[in-house]
Write a structure and sequence with these properties.
single chain, 56 residues, alpha+beta, two-stranded parallel sheet
């Protein structure tokens, strides 16, 4: 499972890094957009950012 955090782990570059990390492994990756909470500074990525990550 891979949690997508806006501006932290949701860029196309992050997607490519994940692909390189898993290269040669049989793996299924579940992408999980972060669920926001007021007391935390992390934010959920936009739907468009999630789609870009998937397509990278």
């Amino acid at each position: 499972e891979y949690v997508l955090l806006r501006g932290v782990t949701d860029s196309p570059e992050d997607a490519l890094h994940l692909v390189k990390l898993l290269k040669g492994m049989r793996a299924k990756v579940n992408l999980i957009p972060f669920n926001e909470a007021e007391e935390l500074t992390y934010r959920r990525p936009s739907d468009a950012a999630v789609e870009r990550f998937q397509q990278s």
